[in-house]
Amino acid sequence: MSGILAYTFATIVTLPVFALIVFYFIARAATRNNKKSFHLAIDASTLFFILAVHFIMIIIWETSFLSLILTVLLVIATVMVLTHYKFKEEIHFKRVFKGFWRLNFLLFFFAYFCLLTFGIMKRVFDAFA
């Protein structure tokens, strides 16, 4: 049983788009609302996109960039809190965290596909060199 769980987790981390689709259909069955289901799927799969970007970077450059990823997350959070405070003059942590999490989804979703494309091109050129 633990082997099945490990393989499922490994697949979801390796292919976070698969996780996004699975989470969407689960949320769709539970809520019967497309917009809410999509937002729940995005929120649930963000962590998997972050992990996938981390592991792709390890595969491409053979070194861990976890500290850089955590620094980027911290900078984004700081900028969002300060911006929210500047415009609203008080901090609504739930709204700030939701915006932070969804911005991270966009950033790491884009980074995942860019790194995936770069990694494939690098392997192809390395094979011919």
Put simply, the count of helices is 5
Rg value: 17 Å
Shape: globular
Order of helices and strands: HHHHH
Detail the poorly predicted runs: none
Total individual domains: 1
The biggest sheet, with number of strands, parallel, antiparallel or mixed sense and barrel status, is: none
Q: What fraction strand?
A: under 5%
What's a concise summary of this model?
Helix 2 runs antiparallel to helix 3. The mean pLDDT is 92. This protein has 129 residues and is mainly alpha-helical.
Report what the structure shows:
- By secondary structure, the chain is mainly alpha-helical.
- It has one domain.
- 90% of the residues lie in helices and 0% in strands.
- The protein has five helices and no strands.
- The chain has helices at 2-14, 16-31, 34-61, 66-88, 93-128.
- Helix 1 (2-14) crosses helix 2 (16-31) and helix 4 packs antiparallel against helix 5.
- The protein starts with a helix and ends with a helix.
